[in-house]
Write a structure and sequence with these properties.
With 164 residues, the chain is of the alpha+beta class. Helices cover 28% and strands 36% of the residues. The protein has 4 helices and 8 strands, in the order βββαββββαβαα. It has a 4-stranded antiparallel sheet with strand order 1-2-3-4. It has a 4-stranded mixed sheet with strand order 5-6-8-7. The longest helix is centred in the middle third of the chain and has 14 residues. 30% of the residues are buried.
Length: 164
Amino acid sequence: MRVNVEALNLKDKPVVINRVAKVVKGGKRFSFSALVVVGDGEGWVGVGKGKAAEVPSAIAKAVEHAKKNLIRIPLNSTSIPHEVHGRFGGEHILLKPAKQGTGIIAGGAVRSLLEVAGAKNVVAKTLGRGNPFNAVRATIQGLRQLRDPKEVRAMRQAPIEIDE
């Protein structure tokens, strides 16, 4: 889905910045890898990865990548509508809605993603190693499964056609 990125008031949040090394003939060449989440706080969220010789340019590349991969998640006031499981690689993320006042109960990478998405009351459990790259991808995969209650209600009340 293409969205006008300029119309959204996106905030970016670096999740993790790694120094990576490439071994060459004369020694090691260092560069930086950045994982960034962007969101407008009202249901739009995206994840991006960038790599460059300096940290600010790695973050800038990651933000641009994240803006190209925005998804819309349905929010039920300040929480998610229903429980979902996200899996990516060795990571398994369980996301559950929570009642008003609970806050975001989640670990590092998942917490950052939910904060920029606009969810305020969610319980999340990371079942796996906790690799932030895979944890964020698993969370996005779980959030893609969310269905808006109004859409589901409309779909279920539609008459079912039977072919004979």
